[in-house]
Amino acid sequence: MTTPFEIDPTYIATQCRFIRQTHKLTQENLSEMAGLSVRSIEKIESGNHRCQMQSLELISKAVGINVGFFRKPTAEEEAKTEAEMKRALKKMIVIRTQPIRNVNDFLRILVIGMVDVSTFRRSKMTTLWK
User: Fold this and answer.
1) I need a surface site. Which of 29, 33, 34, 66 has the fewest CB within 10 A?
2) Which ranges of the chain does DSSP label H, i.e. alpha helix?
3) Tell me, what DSSP letter sits at residue 124?
4) In this structure, is residue 30 part of a structural domain?
5) What does pTM read for this prediction?
6) pLDDT averaged over consecutive 10-residue blocks of the chain (130 residues)?
């Protein structure tokens, strides 16, 4: 049995819908997999129904996730996650590209990409490896 947590119907509804849509399932598919009625899934996803922990365990087992996925994070956990995301985004490199619409676009990009790196290797790389 899992550790119980406070059940927030609105948050659980969002998470349940997210799981179902991510796995490309209908409410009927999810209900069959979890062994629940379609009406139960509808009530959970409406956010107006306070579902039982057992229903969440059945859904999580059916799709292979931890039931903790339905636990709403605390304000501190949300702040920590947001800070981690910001740090990760700062480390990302975004390379803007233009769409390739025809063969000429492809060849232009291919030719631009063929830069003579031999001069770069001789001048810069040799100093890096010493």
Assistant:
1) 66
2) 9-22, 27-34, 38-46, 53-63, 75-91, 103-113, 118-120, 126-128
3) I
4) yes
5) 0.60
6) 73 94 94 96 93 93 93 92 90 73 78 54 45
